Amino acid sequence: MTTIEAPRTPARSAGRNGNLEKWAWIYMRVSGVVLVVLIFGHLWVNLMVGEGVHAIDFGFVGGKWADPFWKVWDVLMLWLALIHGGNGMRTVVNDYTKPGRAQKILKGAIFAAVVILIVLGTLVVFTFDPCPAGSPADLLPSFCPAA
């Protein structure tokens, strides 16, 4: 008869940490599936439709982000990818470091990086103006009213 040794640490209850890990696991699976759709849609529109990769320039992005649909698409892709990646890095830190100060510092750095990149990326998408007021007409894209 084979017996299984007792684990090194007692089993955690399904308290706060147990639920966090469960929801983080579920998030990774759901966000992964949604990201596949978002990324392949993004690649299809940018690389296959129209002139392909040769058409991607400032005007292409400006025209694309003139449509609220593409702003939401890109921001959703940004948020899901950053949170997905941050959660993956959190898991790596949990796996390769011992609980303590170093682990808290690493997790804090990951959290800070994710938050900063989400805020900056969201600001770029929603405040992007391809036709800034007061710019010289020769520097504006052809679709701007002043050009």
CATH architecture title: Up-down Bundle
CATH class call: Mainly Alpha
Total number of strands: 0
Task: Please state the structural category.
Answer: mainly alpha
Silhouette: elongated
Q: For the CA atoms, what is the radius of gyration?
A: 22 Å
SSE string, helices as H and strands as E: HHHH
For the record, the count of structural domains works out to 1
Low-confidence stretches: none
CATH topology: 3 helical TM bundles of succinate and fumarate reductases
Distance between the termini: 84 Å
Would you tell me the overall average pLDDT? 87
What features would you describe in this structure?
With 147 residues, the chain is mostly helical. It has one domain (23-130): 3 helical TM bundles of succinate and fumarate reductases (Up-down Bundle). 65% of the residues lie in helices and 0% in strands. The chain has four helices and no strands. It has helices at residues 16-48, 58-64, 68-96, 101-127. The N and C termini lie far apart (84 Å).
